[in-house]
Design a protein that fits this description.
single chain; Rossmann fold; globular
Length: 267
């Protein structure tokens, strides 16, 4: 198998559960980790409970690891104090431990919410400045910049996968643009792990949807070609014929309703 040991964080989460069986063939051992309880180890797995904000525990977690799929952390809008621990401190601990143990590559589960304040009619690429839509999005921007820094400073390669919406199917009209099927998620991770040189790369993670917000030209070396499309779900969200309200965040912003979930500023 290509890797001796892969580490998957966030293994008790929605995507972690989906990914466990899908990445098993890539490594002799997949070490799956979360702060929450996980399903028991399958053949070729090690299960390790670990809080990402515990630096010593993350150092232990990283022993013998060749590459990391970092999916652990808070995955929706929350207080700054909460994302500080789980996402900012947690991702810092991942990179420090990776450096300590000579890990060569991290695939970071970043988010559309790093650019959530762009409007859905703006076609952007990875060189567009970030526009986080809340504390959660800010923590993803920080995580991406950790990847930038640790590549420049220490040579640890990173792919930041800015996941759109990875669910079995789109749950609303916005997700017609942001949807990333599980098969395409798996393929994005395969490209991110097996491309010989990635340096620091930002990859937007969507399927081949009819509505396009993102241009992956700066990640073309990864060769990611999504195979699914949200087109087959179009019947779930019939066109009303009316223009969406310009004030409806769901249909205005890349980040959808997240733009309103952050702190209240005197509203
Ligand atoms: P999830 O919330 O279901 O899973 C996240 C996991 O991280 C949970 O099992 C949680 O227990 C764990 N976690 C939280 N704090 C932790 C800590 N301090 N130490 C250790 N583990 C901790 O989220 P989901 O949907 O599986 O997403 C996985 C990753 O992908 C997240 O980083 C999320 O931000 C990112 N993402 C997911 C998207 C999606 O469509 N599902 C969209 C954009 C980004």
């Amino acid at each position: 198998k290509p890797f001796n040991r892969l580490l998957l964080t966030g293994a008790a989460g929605n995507l972690g559960k989906v990914l466990r069986p899908r990445i098993a063939a890539w490594a002799e051992i997949v070490r799956v980790s979360d702060v929450a309880a996980m399903a028991p180890a399958q053949a070729g797995e090690e299960v390790v409970r670990c809080d990402l904000s515990d630096k010593a525990a993350v150092n232990q977690l990283m022993r013998g690891v060749d590459a990391v799929l970092h999916f652990g952390g808070i995955s929706t809008e929350n207080t700054f104090e909460a994302v500080l621990r789980a996402n900012i401190q947690g991702t810092y601990n991942i990179y420090e431990a990776a450096h300590l143990h000579g890990v060569r590559r991290v695939v970071f589960a970043s988010s559309n919410h790093a650019v959530g304040f762009y409007e859905q009619n703006q076609f952007i690429d990875a060189h567009a400045p970030t526009r986080p839509d809340g504390m959660y999005g800010l923590s993803k921007v920080f995580g991406e910049q950790l990847g930038r820094y640790y590549y420049d400073r220490a040579g640890i390669e990173t792919v930041c996968l800015r996941i759109g919406s990875s669910y079995p199917e789109p749950a609303n009209r916005r997700m017609m643009g942001s949807w990333l099927s599980y098969d395409d998620l798996q393929e994005a991770l395969r490209c991110s792990l097996f491309t010989p040189r990635v340096g620091f790369t930002v990859l937007f993670g969507t399927s081949d949807n009819p509505v396009r917000w993102w241009d992956n030209r700066h990640a073309s070396h990864l060769g990611f070609r999504p195979k699914d499309s949200s087109a087959r779900f179009a019947h779930l969200f019939p066109d009303s014929g009316a223009y969406p309200s310009p004030n409806d965040p769901l249909m205005r912003y890349v980040g959808g309703t997240f733009v309103n979930d952050g702190p209240r500023y005197g509203e």
